[in-house]
UniProtKB/TrEMBL annotation:
Keywords of the record: Cell shape, Glycosyltransferase, Membrane, Peptidoglycan synthesis, Transferase, Transmembrane, Transmembrane helix
Cell location: Membrane
Native organism: Candidatus Kaiserbacteria bacterium GW2011_GWA2_52_12
Protein's name according to its UniProt entry: Probable peptidoglycan glycosyltransferase FtsW
GO cellular component, one term: cell division site
Enzyme Commission number, as recorded: 2.4.99.28
Length: 367
């Protein structure tokens, strides 16, 4: 075997296609928002395209050439810093509340969502931890309890915000690292039981969680209230037919579709690009996660393999959960569509994560 000196061209191509496609899709959705008479389109577009996309692409390219092993050494510090930054939203006049959640920091006229950085920080922390303990991931003390200890901080802070969508992504990605590290089936079963019990408890004590579950079970419920977003999303996707109305021709983005640049942007894709375009987008994300796992399988060390598994899972699961919610096959979560939905912080975190994944592929072993 010899160590590869070049970035995986297939992985880089998939990421590039998703980023470029995402920019076009976002631009189309932004036109719909502008057509409604919104006054903040310019600031939203600047935040997403310049701060998120522009700075993010520079960061992606930079991280492609920084040895990913450097992150193993400082992973605990990155993790703690991300936790502190995410907790700062609770400080008066610094944290900003919107839509019932306190998830943003207001700094110098800009809004930042620090929990986006917590996604990759937690993945790197888990990869560093399980690489350090190696074969002991199958033990109760180092395996399951280690996983729960890593998840404790993000869980507490994100439940208080609340931001269950981000918590779900972090849990899935970190669990994937735990699984790849050699978790026992007993521990996997226990984690799944804890997750189900936690969701049940939240549904009882957080009415909005139960509302989303109820809409998922019965999409016809509350079509002018909690079920409104799903109803309008399905109308948009259904009206796209096989080949779609054509790029920029969505009707729903100009009228009733909530958050056409955010959570509901896949509905814009479905209406403009139809079944064919939607399937292609899903296949691109599927190819991304499979190529990410292939990168993990050829990584030169355990940390690289676990980090690749976590990053690939984070980027793809975020996309799949968003798409599933817009199709009514999963509850609405507020999770963005990776590389596409509005949000400078989300775009920045996704592109930075992609840069680390590409660097791991650059150092992969070739057979």
């Amino acid at each position: 075997m010899r160590r590869g000196a070049h970035i995986d061209a297939v992985l880089a191509s998939l990421i590039a296609i998703l980023i470029i496609s995402g920019l076009f899709i976002f631009a189309s959705a932004a036109l719909g928002f502008l057509g409604r008479g919104a006054t903040n389109v310019t600031s939203v577009a600047f935040n997403h395209l310049v701060l998120g996309g522009g700075v993010g692409i520079v960061l992606l390219i930079t991280l492609c050439f920084i040895d990913y092993n450097q992150w193993r050494k400082i992973a605990p510090y990155i993790y703690i810093t991300a936790l502190i930054a995410t907790a700062l939203v609770f400080i008066p006049h610094l944290g900003m509340e919107h839509g019932g959640g306190k998830r943003w920091l207001s700094l110098a006229g800009m809004t930042i969502q620090p929990s986006e950085a917590l996604k990759i920080a937690t993945v790197l922390m888990a990869a560093a931890y399980f690489a350090a303990i190696r074969g002991r991931a199958a033990t109760l003390t180092y395996g399951l309890l280690g996983f729960l200890a890593i998840m404790a901080g993000p869980t507490l802070i994100l439940l208080l915000q609340p931001d269950l969508g981000t918590l779900g992504i972090i849990t899935i990605a970190t669990f994937a690292v735990f699984f790849a590290a050699g978790a026992r089936w007993r521990d996997i079963g226990l984690v799944l039981c804890i997750a189900l019990l936690s969701l049940g408890t939240l549904a009882v004590f957080r009415p909005y969680v139960w509302d989303r579950v109820a809409v998922f079970i019965n999409p016809a419920q509350g079509q002018q209230a909690e079920g409104y977003q799903l109803k309008q999303s399905l109308i948009a996707i259904g009206s796209g037919g096989l080949a779609g109305r054509g790029f920029g021709q969505s009707v729903q983005k100009f009228t009733y579709l909530p958050e056409p640049m955010g959570d509901s942007i896949f509905a814009v894709v479905g209406e403009e690009m139809g079944f064919v375009g939607s399937v292609i987008l899903v296949l691109l994300f599927l190819a991304l996660v499979l190529r990410g796992y292939a990168t993990a399988s050829s990584a030169p060390n355990l940390f690289g393999a676990l980090a690749a598994v976590g990053i690939a899972t984070y980027l793809s699961s975020e996309a799949f959960i968003n798409i599933a919610a817009m199709l009514g096959i999963a509850p609405l979560t507020g999770v963005p569509l990776t590389f596409i939905s509005q949000g400078g912080s989300a775009m920045l975190a996704s592109l930075a994560s992609a840069g680390i994944l590409l660097n791991i592929s650059r150092r992969r072993n070739r057979r």
